[in-house]
Every structure is written in C-alpha cells, then in structure tokens.
Write a structure and sequence with these properties.
Layout (H helix, E strand, L loop, with lengths): L3 E2 H8 L2 H13 L4 E2 H8 L3 H13 L3 E6 L2 E6 L1 H12 L11 H9 L4 E2 L4
Parallel strand pairs: 1-5
Antiparallel strand pairs: 2-4, 3-4
Length: 118
C-alpha cells in the first residue's frame, strides 16, 4: 500500500458527508453495510454516495467487498488505528493520559502514515 500523509486522511474525513459515512461504517464493525443501506440511512442520492465512497476508498479508509449483487463497505480499522497512533504519538509528553485503544495503537501499529514534508 502506498504511504499517504495524515493530511490526506484528514482531508478525506474533513467533509461532513464522508465523515458521516465513515462513522456509520465504524459503528457497523468489520461486517460493514451495503451501499444502498448507507444511502438510505444518511439520505444520500446514489451519485453523491458513490462519489464519497470512491474518495474514502482511494485513501484506503474504507474497503468494499462484493457479495452477490451488493457491495458491502467497511472501515479499514488498521488504517484508522494507524492514523490515531500518528495523531497521539507524542501526546502529553509521553505521560499516561491516552485512552486504552490509543495506547495500544501507539505501541503496536505499523507506521504507514507519514507527516507531510514542509
């Protein structure tokens, strides 16, 4: 997988609709949700939904899996953990103030996210 910058992930999540889609998929868990159900729950037109799903897929925040006539989308929890680890890596000057999941991510997540070069 190509290395993306944290700014690219955050830019993708910086749009209200994409953030809503991503949060819905995080809540759904690894089994995911089919595209039409996402559209219904968020009241999105099919073309709008398709545009935003494609963008989230391009930056690897979600993945689609074909099952019969349906595509089920799910959050890529590894990428999400990597992003959280990157964002919290130097939190509180190394003191133990992070939530449990962030602590675990900081220690175990591989570093596929890089900072943007200045």
């Amino acid at each position: 997988m190509e290395t993306l910058t944290a700014a690219e992930f955050l830019a993708a999540l910086g749009h209200e609709t994409r953030l809503a889609i991503f949060r819905l998929l995080v809540e759904a868990g690894p089994e995911g949700v089919n595209a039409s159900a996402i559209g219904e729950r968020l009241e999105l037109a099919p073309a709008t939904l398709s545009f935003h799903l494609a963008h989230l897929s391009r930056v690897c925040l979600i993945k689609g899996k074909q099952e019969g006539r349906f595509i089920f989308y799910s959050a890529d929890f590894t990428v999400m953990d990597d992003l959280l680890a990157f964002l919290t890596r130097n939190c509180c000057q190394g003191k133990s103030c992070l939530p449990k999941t962030a602590k675990r991510s900081c220690k175990t997540a591989p570093t596929r996210i890089k900072a943007r070069k200045s």
